Please model this.
Amino acid sequence: MGIVHTGVVVVGTGFAGMGMAIQLRRAGRDDFVLLEKADDFGGTWRDNTYPGCACDIQSHMYSFSFEQKPDWTRAYAPQPEIWQYLRDVAAKWDLARNTRFGAEVIGARWDSAENRWYVSTNSGDTYVTRFLVAGLGALHIPSIPELPGIERFAGKTFHSARWDHDYDLTGKRVAVIGTGASAVQFVPRIAPDVAELTLFQRTAPWVMPKPDHVMPEWSQNLFAKVPGAQRAYRHLLYWVNEVRAVGFNGHQRILKYASKLAAANIRRSVKDPDLAAKLTPDYVMGCKRVLISNDYYPTFNRPNVHLDTAGIAEVREHSVVGEDGREHQVDAIIYGTGFHVTDSYDYLKITGRDGVDLAGLWRDNGINTHLGITVSGFPNLFFLLGPNTGLGHNSVVFMIESQVRYVADAIRLAEREGADALDVRRSAQDAFNAEVQRKLADGVWTKGGCTSWYLDSQGVNRTIWPGFTWRYWMRTRSVDPADFELISRTRPAEKGSGLVPAIG
Ligand SMILES: Cc1cc2nc3c(=O)[nH]c(=O)nc-3n(C[C@H](O)[C@H](O)[C@H](O)COP(=O)(O)OP(=O)(O)OC[C@H]3O[C@@H](n4cnc5c(N)ncnc54)[C@H](O)[C@@H]3O)c2cc1C
Model:
């Protein structure tokens, strides 16, 4: 147990935390600490090891712009390759030197007298820092439904993000609960091995064909040897993805047309017309995340794969009973039920100016931020991939890169002005939220006829950035000083770095 003083604390070592750390490194700073509760870099790509796990945005786009990898093996790389990429990037930028693994942040308190954050961890260590950057990830706390009777179940249970590789599924009768992005990837992989697989579907997802392919050797050579070739390819992918935002934001006719094509694809892929009908969503495509797979629908032609849409009434010692009274004997239950998203901050105790509790504030008033990054009353606290900066149509790494540049600019602004802290003005935050919610009101997430994890308990979309990502990039290119109140201690503010020396 100890107290460590540093300039910047960055929480999390996924794309976001690593991107922030590298941005600081590139700015010539070493006065930062990365706190990571797990024991390696990689975030999402360290935790999700289920069979078939892969990205669903093209790898050449779903990677850092400043660390492009010419030799991605597939258009959509599998999880081990993405995880290795992140570990390689971490090694190249020597991030381990600044990282404390096994350090779970349990709370942070802003001290208005000192203008410092006191960040506490589960080990009892406290980090005293001027700037606090939260790259906690929106999809990392598994959401597990409360099934009646689950405590009686004598078989195996696990969540897709905590895959138990020691448990051999061969010949087992398996219930899969949920039909989100992960289930769509692992169901086709485990179906050939298990004796029986019953998929419990509450809502059908729209699943489009996946334009996946091996990256040919010539293209890998081209990207490695011809300057600018990979960058040009990345630009192409970026703009192709960006076009999808048009449909999602107010032009639902395009999505309705795409839904018809997708429904025809389901009918073509699934032999049994009743089953095909059950697998066809009744809402407009894009309302929930659009998934991609070439083997999801054909999996339902297997005699050992069953779809249950009645809902789960209860779990017994060796079975799952549907609302329709059918009892399915199972050895294992796998939760493909996603993550806590809009309530993911509830488990952290963050207190800002005047002792205001962030989770409580957001519970009572809704989640509000400026640009998804700063929150009024919480000086020098920055979120990465925070509220309303998630995407359904392009790579979030693009958003993360915009944000880390913005945060670095904010730190520079504070130092240039000789201020201890920056607190975003409530007026700027309110204006941003009003604008985002006005735009979302027209979007497919609101009007598409579904509920989704994008929405909070009040049905308000706190997750998605509405519109083009280049607009977000423009908005975050530099910090507008007028948006912030500058705070200084009564004694003269420190000039220059003004930061307490870094640890070790
Ligand atoms: C299976 C899967 C596939 C995905 N595919 C795509 C895709 O193709 N394209 C796309 O754009 N997005 C995709 N996503 C979304 C994905 O989460 C983001 O793209 C991205 O990885 C998020 O990076 P992050 O750093 O913000 O969060 P994460 O990768 O979740 O990293 C957060 C890190 O913070 C750590 N942490 C959290 N809380 C604490 C704490 N209190 N103390 C210390 N450490 C903490 C976690 O252990 C983790 O290492 C996918 C998500 C999943 C789950």
About this structure: The CA atoms of residues 343 and 363 lie 9 Å apart.
